[in-house]
Amino acid sequence: MKVGLLLGLSALAVTATTIIAGAGDPLSYPHLTQLNQSQTCETLSLADGLSRLPASVYKTAKVHFVVNSSDKMGFDYKEQEFNHDNINRCKALGFSKTGACAAGQYAVRFCPYDNAYFSQCCDNTYAYSKAECSYPRTISSNSCGGKFKCYCDATLYPHTSCPAPQEPADKCVDDTGTHYAECKCPANWISCDSSIHQKGSGTGCSYNGTTTYASCTCESGYTLTCEDYGPKNSADYCFLKGTKYYKTCKTAQEVCEGLGFGHNDGHPCSADEVIDGYCPRSGTYYSCKIDPVKYCKNHGYSNGGCGAYETVSSSACPYDASYKKCIPTCKSRLADAGYKEVSSNLFYKGAVGAVLGDLTISGDNMLYNPLGVRYTKLRGEASFSKYDGYSECSSAKKTKLTFKPVLEVLATSLDNLILVIDHDNNSNEARTYVRGNHEWREVYVTDINSGTAHDGAKLNRTEWLNWISFGSLHIYIEGTVTLKGDNTFTASNYYNSVNDSSQKMALHFFELTGKGKLIMDGGSNNFTYVPILLRDNQAGAAVVLKNKAVLSMPYNGISIKGGSGKFIMDNSSADLYALRVNGPDKHFKNLRIRNNSTLRLQTWLRLEGSRLSVYGKSSVWTKPDEIEVCSKNTICIFKNSKLSTTTYSKIGSLAYYPSVSHDCEKKDLRSKYYKTSDADVQEICGAGTLNENDLEDSDIY
């Protein structure tokens, strides 16, 4: 029995030795031949201290003892029994798992009875002993299968990558990859200072509240170094890499002006100055200083004596006392303009005489200049002040010319003069002539020595002057006299009319002969005591008021006796004592009041062989209610014009024409001869009367 047992153990030993063959020297494992072996199979370490082989390389064997049941071999008192339920035995010992672990896991603690069973699956991360896990990795506090995790702590190494342009810092590598403690900006990146107008280039990198950039540049506009003349604002710059950059630089002009050199070719020295010095920063700029000679001469000082007719002032030039001020006078201004002296009060230039003081024209020779040329124009001192700008001449001084009627002084253009007719106490019939075309501007015509003991009846020629009295001195206008500005025609003495004590007349009066024409072109014209006569004139003769002219004749008026003379008012006004018109035919348009004109008469209007036309919103008013009309007379009041008296008024269209022949008689506006129907008006005055304006007044002047 014992022999059988030993033989069986020997066979087991041989089998075990064979199993571990190739793993080491089998003789180094003597326990395999020991008699008191445990039947529990265990894995042993190799004798040389090498790590144990994985369980899968080991081969196990079951041992069955074949004995004779009657041979107790010392075990007769005990029944031998072998339990082969290894599965439950493994489970009972806690080896409950079988099969394969999940991906990323491995099995640990196999059952010694059946290595198909094991106690648990461990993650592959549980692969380290404590000795194997070193800084900066962290050993896990728990283990699995006797192994620990060795990992990078996420609280210490939270980053696996960094966003550009940040870079990772403090690296830790574990089984899952590389981890970083923080993301930092590149060490060579810099901050840009906006207080000195820097800005970053490209994308900025922010870390701990600070933004840095790969490099800095200047803000827009800061590009100039202003090395030539410096910046306009030295405090406004961008500082970059040791250099200041500015937006705007000073110009050479600004620098030089700051140094007192404010002139150049575009802004040269004044006429009183010369160049004093050049700018050290730019030779195109310079300073100026007063040149005494230039200044003194330019400001009217002279050291060589004054010009003709100038006076010397006591004041000296402030830069050179040898230069004195020469004060111009009216005469010196005229001399400068080319006028030459005839006498102290008379200068001439060509055919123009300048009257600077009162003169008495004693003979024809005084109407000619020293070269024998008759003066065509005589100007008073005031005209040079008013119209030539000679402030040295008095604007208020109207110089006086005194002459006898025999001298044709009035046959000249006259400007700002007082004309005094010396009758030499002679009231007999006399004549003076105004031949040619002349302009009288701002004249005052009067007389002296007209006498005081004359018989008034001798001065009245009512039998041919239509009830307007005239004096004895005829001022014949044979050409055209145009009145400009304000003019006055008066007398130092007057005579009362025998027939009408309200009429007052001077010894002289104007008489238009032939084609003579008197035109009042604007201004105010006062004919005091001086009447106007048009007698037996040719076509073209007329008294004309235009351009808002004003005519005043408070003591007499205008008489047209025969011929083709006319009285025409165009956009003007007149206030006359009397108007007597005796024309050649009932339809002759010798009295026209047009274009917003107003005629006022203090006595009756007398018309014979004439036509009165009132049109263009004009009006005629007479103080008496009657108008003296004759059988050869026509009155035409156009649409929107008016004929009125103190009591009555008629607004056109209106026509007057007596249907029967009768002598001249006075009729008020209630007369049956005043027609208002369109048919009557057109028959008497023509179709145009129904309009506001005369359609046939092209020959108005």
Any overview of this molecule?
The model is unreliable at 1-58, 71-78 and 453-465 (pLDDT under 50). The N and C termini lie far apart (184 Å). The strands form eleven sheets. This protein has a 19-stranded mixed beta sheet that branches. Strands 20-21-22-24-26-29-32-37-40-42-44-47-50-53-55 form a 15-stranded mixed beta sheet. The longest helix has 18 residues, at 2-19. The chain is built from eight helices and 55 strands. The radius of gyration is 71 Å and the shape is elongated. By secondary structure, it is mainly beta. 9% of the residues lie in helices and 37% in strands.
Short summary:
With 701 residues, this protein is mainly beta. It is 9% helix and 37% strand. It has a 19-stranded mixed sheet that branches.
Strand content: 35-45%
Number of strands: 55
Shape: elongated
Q: Alpha-carbon distance between the termini? A: 184 Å
Largest sheet: 19 strands, mixed
Structural class: mainly beta
Number of helical regions? 8
Poorly predicted runs of 5 or more residues = 1-58, 71-78, 453-465
Look at the structure and give the mean pLDDT: 85
Assign a percent range to the helix content: under 10%
Determine Rg (CA atoms, Å). Answer: 71 Å
Please identify the oligomeric state: single chain
Which helices and strands occur, and which strands form pairs?
Elements: H1 2-19, H2 86-92, E1 97-98, E2 105-110, E3 117-123, E4 126-128, E5 138-144, E6 147-151, E7 167-174, E8 177-184, E9 198-200, E10 205-207, E11 210-212, E12 216-218, E13 237-240, E14 243-246, H3 252-258, E15 273-278, E16 286-290, H4 292-298, E17 301-302, E18 311-317, E19 320-327, H5 330-336, E20 340-343, E21 346-349, E22 352-355, E23 359-361, E24 377-380, H6 381-387, E25 399-403, E26 413-415, E27 417-422, E28 430-434, E29 437-441, E30 444-448, H7 462-465, E31 473-477, E32 480-484, E33 487-489, E34 495-496, E35 504-505, E36 508-512, E37 517-521, E38 524-527, E39 532-537, E40 542-546, E41 550-563, E42 566-570, E43 573-582, E44 591-594, E45 598-601, E46 605-608, E47 610-614, E48 619-622, E49 627-629, E50 633-637, E51 642-645, E52 649-651, E53 654-656, E54 665-667, E55 674-675, H8 678-685
Parallel strand pairs: 22-24, 23-25, 24-26, 25-27, 26-29, 27-30, 28-31, 29-32, 30-33, 31-36, 32-37, 33-38, 36-39, 37-40, 38-41, 39-41, 40-42, 41-43, 42-44, 43-45, 43-46, 44-47, 45-48, 46-49, 47-50, 48-51
Antiparallel strand pairs: 1-3, 2-3, 4-6, 5-6, 7-8, 9-12, 10-11, 13-14, 15-16, 17-19, 18-19, 20-21, 21-22, 34-35, 49-54, 50-53, 51-52, 53-55
